[in-house]
Every structure is written in C-alpha cells, then in structure tokens.
Design a protein that fits this description.
5-stranded mixed beta sheet; 12 helices; globular; single chain; alpha/beta; 335 residues
C-alpha cells in the first residue's frame, strides 16, 4: 500500500465504530492486565522496571530502511537463537494490548480472559506455529512505546510485534524483519476542530505524541518550519493510546501518530477524525536483537509464506472495516 493508496483509504473514517468508552476500558485493561495469554510465566511484563533505557544513538542514514533486512536464504534459519527459543518452549513477544484492531483486549469479548487479538497478534501466532509447532506457545509482554527497544536489547523479549516502524536510527539499535505493513503519519483531532492537517492550522494547538515514536521525532524536527513555532508539542506520553484519552479529556487539541493506528482510534470514537493526508511513508517490521541472524532469517521466511494468504485473511478480519480494501502487503527487497 503506497502513500497514494493510503491517502485514499484514510478519508472519512471519523464516524465509524463504537463509542469512546471503549478506549477508556481498553486503557483500564492495559493497567490491570499487563501480561497474560497463551502461557503464564509468573512475570510482570516490561513495565519500565529492570530494563535499561536504550540510547537513541544516531545511525548513519540508510537508503530505504525497509529494505535492509537479511534474505531468508542468506544463511542458517535454525541456529543458536532458534534453539534457545525451542529449549525455552515458548516465544516471548512484546506487543501492545490497547491498540484497537492491532493488539488489544476486547472488553466485550465472550472469553473470560479477554485474550489479545488483532492484526499484529495473528502474525505472532503464525511465528510461534512455525518455530514451535503451536500457535499458542507465546508469552505476551505488554510494552509501552518507549520500552520497545530496551526490552529487545535487555533480552526481556525475543521480538517485538507492535506497529513498530523501521527507520535508520532504530536499525542502529535493533534488527528488523522485512516489512509487513505500510502506513504514514497523520493528524487525529475532534471533528469540530478547525485543524486541517499537518500544516499551519496547528498554530497554538496542543499536540500529543508517544515517547520513542516516529511522531515525536517528526514533530521535533518540523516545529518552526513545516508546522508553526507556536504549536505546543510538550505533551509526550508512554503509550500512544494515552494521547487519545488526553484528546477526549480536552487536555490536547490533536494527536500525531501512524495513520493506520489513528484510523482504528477514529473507529473507536465517533467524535474524532483524521485531518489532512499522511505526510510520511513508513513500514512496520518485526523487531529483534541485533546479531540474532538465524531468527531474523526465520521470521523473514515465515513472512514469505504468511503474505501468500494469511496476511490478507488477517487484514480482512481486523483492518478492512477501517482501512478499506487493500492491494496486499508491501513489496519486499533484502539488502
């Protein structure tokens, strides 16, 4: 899905879906249920304690960061990293649990456990099925946006599957799979707002973004040039959904985040809508520890097979209602 296709599908989503209370309930679930699902290991998940913050060291600028992953056939797919996962008997994955349709616990679920579900969660189960022969052999760890890289570097998770954009700076800190989804940054604001998009209409507006996000990096780079200097970008939260709550409470005037996530939030809350067009081209990838080359190759092989049928099945289940018809997963190149 290129930028033009995304722009077409992102128009007019503001009046879709359930009432805003779903967001508040999801936020409550995020606090009450930090780690649970297919297997419980007694841990408390990654909550900011015991995980060193990764230094956002600047990587050298790389051309087409989404094309920098290892080819599946460039080496072994069953080395020391894979063997360690097999010996452990489970795949430990950092995910979100409050991103509607991506990784979330539905408070209206008939399951008493309110199990995690969504587009990212389907991919996690496919990876577990391939490596361990059982899609349920997963330990899910709920990770805030700003804890994704430290969790990987500190060995708290085997991988992160959490709407995580591949970019040059992050490639200096972690490794990524080939891309499995394409999106772009966009503005979310109340329907009644006079904000038109990522432009001069953000003058004197309070804008929320998540710590460690592409949105925050973009805002810092663009304030005073692309967007007015008077734009207040000081509201920074650990989790992206927190921005929607702040918007609902009237504490901020707009949110900047991935358009695909913003569309799902507009589906949750009919009082908000996307404003203007996406202003970046970005790709989500599975993030893993640098040097875990066998795991990287294995995940890329899984994605080769996943894209053939399961990708579209998952898309139609979770995202088609808000993103509309898709032309399929993004094209893939390897370094």
């Amino acid at each position: 899905m290129n930028a033009r296709r995304l722009r077409t599908s992102l128009r007019g989503w503001g009046g879709v879906g359930a009432m805003a209370v779903v967001c508040a309930l999801a936020a409550v679930f995020a606090l009450l249920l930090p780690v649970s699902q297919s297997r419980e290991d007694g841990g408390t998940g990654v909550d900011g304690q015991g995980v060193a913050q990764g230094s956002q060291a600047k990587a050298e600028k790389c051309p087409a960061p989404q094309n920098q992953s290892l080819s599946p056939d460039s080496g072994p797919q069953d080395g020391a990293t894979i063997q360690k996962i097999k010996e452990k008997g489970s795949l430990t994955v950092g995910v979100d649990q409050n991103s509607y349709r991506w990784g979330y616990r539905d408070p209206n679920s008939e399951s008493k456990k309110a199990e995690l579900e969504g587009f990212d969660i389907d991919l996690v189960h496919a990876i577990a099925q391939d490596i361990l022969g059982d899609p349920e052999k997963v330990v899910f760890r709920a990770i805030p946006t700003n804890e994704r890289i430290p969790a990987i570097q500190g060995g708290k998770v085997d991988m992160v599957v959490r709407t995580m954009t591949i970019n040059c700076d992050r490639l200096g800190l972690v490794a990524f799979s080939s891309p499995y989804f394409e999106t772009g940054q966009q503005v979310l604001a109340p329907k009644k707002s006079d904000i038109k998009g990522y432009d001069d209409t953000l003058a004197n507006k309070r804008i929320c973004s998540a710590s460690g996000s592409i949105a925050l990096e973009k805002l810092k780079a663009d304030v005073g040039s692309v967007i007015p200097k008077s734009a207040d970008i000081s509201t920074v939260v650990p989790n992206q959904l927190d921005c929607l709550v702040r918007l609902q409470l009237g504490e901020v005037d707009a949110v900047v985040t991935d358009g695909a996530l913003a569309a799902s939030q507009a589906a949750q809350d009919p009082t908000v809508q996307l404003k203007g067009e996406p202003f970046t081209d970005e790709y989500y990838g599975v993030a893993m520890k640098k040097g875990a080359n066998d795991l990287i190759r294995r995940v890329n092989q899984i994605l080769v097979d996943y894209r053939k049928a399961d990708w579209r099945k998952s898309y139609n289940t979770w995202l088609a209602g808000t993103l509309g018809k898709s032309e399929g997963p993004p094209p893939v190149q390897y370094k």
